[in-house]
Amino acid sequence: MIPEHILNRKGARSTKDLNPEVVEYLSKGIVETKNLIEWLAVDQLALLQLVLKQIGKETWFSDFEHAVNAQKKPTANSTTKVIGQTFGIQTKDIEVYEKLKAHTSDVVRCWSCWAESLHYDEVVELLPIMQQYAADSHFGVREVVIFATKERMITDLDIAISILTKWTSSEDENIRRFAVEALRPVGVWTKKIAEFQENPEKGMSLLEPLKSDSSKYVRDAVANWLNDASKSKSDWVVSVCKQWEIESNTKETAYIIKRGLRTINK
């Protein structure tokens, strides 16, 4: 049984506010992280040892430990990626991945995302597998799946656009959000998409269906996409926003327009 004060906690505002009891639960994979501060506090190697024991693969640990310790400048992000990719190198066993991506810990599901992403070179095969991670209930997993897929989507941009355009009609707001956020022209900590910076109109099939979306999460992604594009093609973004004002007189569209033009209007 997990105590109520652990289940109902708010995420720590800083590392000094972290409750050692919470960190213990996190590093045992018993609860999900609440925010970035908690996520950074997870002892990933300790968690890995427990997970490997759960799936009967304790003998793998030395390979993971070596890979993690071989990093020149380790960070929580890079360690997550290294552990995930080491899983991908170790096995293609579907049963292993089913256990990882169903794990309570969001960190373990992030490992699973990186691992599975290694096994699909073609975007047409990769994205259907990654959809479960794009729909994950945890914000961290939803960000990792962007890191794990974006560069390959850029390589096959037309195919990626075609697939993700269909995702814009999903009932799941997380999947709709991914369809836009994953292919932002600039994005955050991800590779820029030069094609969209020069020809943002190529992304209209992703944006148009969501210009009045009911979800703020999705609207923010659409607005951020437009804001990215405005840094290289401001006239195009202004034109799109003017057209949307005429076609879609809703508060949702107005919200997207205001945020999409924030760099232009500041």
User: SSE order, as H and E?
Assistant: HHHHHHHHHHHHHHHHHH
Beta-strand percent range: under 5%
Determine the CATH superfamily of the domain at 157-266.
ARM repeat domains
Helicity range of the residues? 55-70%
- Low-pLDDT stretches are none
Proper CATH architecture of the domain at 157-266: Alpha Horseshoe
Class by SSE composition: mainly alpha
Question: What coarse outline follows from CA principal-axis ratios?
Answer: globular
User: How is the biggest beta sheet arranged?
Assistant: none
Radius of gyration using CA atoms only: 20 Å
Distance between the termini: 51 Å
Instruction: Work out the number of β strands.
Output: 0
* Tally of separate helices: 18
Average pLDDT reading: 96
Q: What is the fold-level CATH name, i.e. the topology of the domain at 157-266?
A: Serine Threonine Protein Phosphatase 5, Tetratricopeptide repeat
- What's the CATH first level of the domain at 157-266? Mainly Alpha
Describe this structure in words.
There is one protein chain. Helix content is 65%, strand content 0%. It has 266 residues and is mostly helical. It is globular and about 60 Å long.
Q: What can be said about this structure in brief?
A:
By secondary structure, this protein is mostly helical. It is 65% helix and 0% strand.
List keywords for this structure.
18 helices; 0% strand; 266 residues; Serine Threonine Protein Phosphatase 5, Tetratricopeptide repeat; mainly alpha
